[in-house]
Design goal:
By secondary structure, the chain is an alpha/beta fold. The protein has helices at 15-28, 47-55, 72-86, 102-113, 129-136, 156-161, 185-198, 225-228, 253-263, 272-282, 286-309, 333-344, 370-379, and strands spanning 34-35, 96-99, 119-124, 140-145, 167-172, 201-205, 229-234, 247-251, 313-314, 322-326, 346-347, 349-350, 361-365. The termini are far apart.
Length: 380
């Protein structure tokens, strides 16, 4: 075996990649595993998006390399989507960059803005990719605490006490994954002011704003946002298109041009049919959002029941595609998740996957049909 690069020692295989192998093994042994661990939407994408993907296969140039910046119509569709859904004006010609999922955007942004030794503010708990990408680039994660007492919002007084001279990026994400917490208007003003004061790029990762959330918010709505913020957005959860790998980032021309320098050296454009399908999805009417959420609402009510049966508590005002539940005392998250897997063949995510402040919690996904969640309840 050829020796791998040293940077690989800074990261571990993604928890879900590891755990899903174990789950697959248990399944192969005949265990009827119910997967409430991961957030991969099981519902169908908008019909017209799938139809457009199919119909576009015969379009002229459909199989050629595509523009690094995506089809102009796709960027226009993002502009209209932001205007209709977030009441925010962005310029599709200069302030939108399509991505193959927002996960890849995390790497592109980090490569565009981080030097070795730079520091990055990362939420604890939060999406694990922020930290692993930071480490792969030999930058240093500085975890900032999110706690239930603080409504899972950063404590700016504590942040101001840190030496911020090497901090280049701060990752934020509301509705927050994994807790489902929402941020008030005041928070966005505060974080933008913080970024401006310390010259820190604020990246708002925003894939969950349309799931069980009455007031979708874009950070771009707030004054001075374009000066210091980039927003990542995704079709994965909003339109059940996780496997399509399509998302985008929104920000100032200057910030996006820096990211494009990286991205155009890594890929050669997004498949034409996917872009055409994405345009259709972005143009969905209110009905799409109403029906999506009516399904998730029923599922969430059942997952709440399941959590109660497992002696867990939850915040019924939380949003997003998960239920973040507090455990009964005297058991760790991993031990609890393992016990539920062993005793009931139900896979849930221990809160510690998302950082040390996830200790004492587990995360249930809503990406399973009602019948499956009912079966899980019956098993407990
Ligand atoms: C907080 C957060 N950001 C980003 C992503 C990545 O989404 P995408 O499918 O757009 O790459 C996820 C996916 O689970 C997520 O939970």
């Amino acid at each position: 075996m050829i020796e791998v690069a040293k940077r690989l020692n800074s990261v571990e295989e993604y928890y879900f990649s590891r755990k899903l192998k174990e789950v697959a093994f248990l399944k192969s042994q005949g265990k009827p595993i119910i997967n409430l661990g991961i957030g991969s939407p099981d519902l169908e994408p908008p019909f017209k998006a799938s139809m457009m993907l199919r119909d576009s296969l015969d379009d002229e140039g459909a199989h050629k390399y595509q523009s690094y910046q995506g089809l102009p119509e796709l960027r226009d569709a993002v502009e209209t989507f932001y205007k209709d859904r977030y009441k925010v004006t962005i310029n599709g010609k200069t302030e939108v960059l399509p991505l193959m999922g927002s996960k890849e955007g995390i790497m592109h942004i980090s490569m565009a803005f981080l030097n070795k030794g730079d520091e990055v503010l990362i939420p604890n708990p939060g999406y694990p990719t922020y930290a692993s990408v930071t480490k792969l680039l030999e930058a240093k994660p500085i975890y900032y605490d999110l706690t239930e007492e603080n409504n899972w919002l950063p404590d700016f007084v504590a942040l101001e006490r840190l030496d911020l001279s090497k901090v280049k990026i701060m990752w934020i994400s509301y509705p927050h994954m994994p807790t489902g917490a929402n941020a008030p208007n005041k928070f966005y003003d505060e974080v933008i002011a913080f970024g401006r004061r310390h010259n820190i790029l604020i990246v708002h990762d925003n894939p969950y704003s349309f799931v069980l959330n009455k007031k979708p918010i874009s950070i771009m709505r707030y004054n001075y946002a374009k000066e210091v913020c980039i927003e990542l957005n995704s079709l994965s959860k909003t339109f059940n298109m996780a496997g399509w790998r399509v998302g985008f980032m929104v920000g100032s021309y200057e910030h996006l041009a820096a990211v494009l320098k990286v991205k155009s050296n890594m890929d050669s454009g997004m498949f034409y049919g996917i872009q055409k399908g994405a345009i259709e999805a972005l143009q969905c009417s209110d009905m799409w959002y109403v029906s999506l959420n009516s399904v998730y609402e029923l599922r969430r009510a059942l997952v709440w029941k399941l959590a109660e049966k497992l002696n867990c508590t939850y915040d019924e005002y939380a949003t997003g595609m998960f239920v973040w539940a507090k455990l009964p005392p005297n058991i760790t998250s991993e031990a609890f998740a393992d016990k539920v897997l062993k005793e009931h063949s139900i896979f849930i995510a221990p809160g510690t996957v998302f950082g040390s402040n996830g200790e004492g919690y587990v995360r249930f996904s809503l990406c399973a049909p009602e019948s499956t969640i009912k079966e899980a309840i019956a098993r407990v």
